[in-house]
Amino acid sequence: MNVNPKPALRPYLPEDAEIAASIFVASIEQLTSDDYSEAQQEAWASAADDDEKFGAKLAAQLTLIATLGGAPVGFASLEGAGHIDMLFVHPDFVGQRVGATLIDALEKLAGARGAQALTVDASDNAAEFFAKRGYVATQRNTVTINGEWLANTSMKKTLAEPAAPGADQ
Domain of 93? Predict the structure, then answer.
């Protein structure tokens, strides 16, 4: 019996804005306290205060929703052909391959869009996740959100060369 089924993926839909915002906020509140102060967390999470604006940002990118048992448990978005803008997994589902499944899919999609590499500005609590997946730190950043300074790390992964058209795979 498979205790942890593999997450299913589907495209983001406009009606996902509220659940995506709640996953975003829960993830920040419950998973980042070792790396960011409460004031920093509140400033970061405030990006989801307006569901409509948050949803519009996700709709403007290639955004995937991960589900378990049909219920959304995480999401990831690709900005342009090669930048991971967001990756958030609900705290109750961390460790169940939700993030890995989302990133695997974004890597394939980015490659199909012609990207040679993927970049991400990883939060301090996500940098290790990306490093384990082959992303290399390129620079340390400090960003300001609602008057609070937050640190993150720009990371990059070179994608596998796409197979030549017609090549057997």
Answer: 8-115
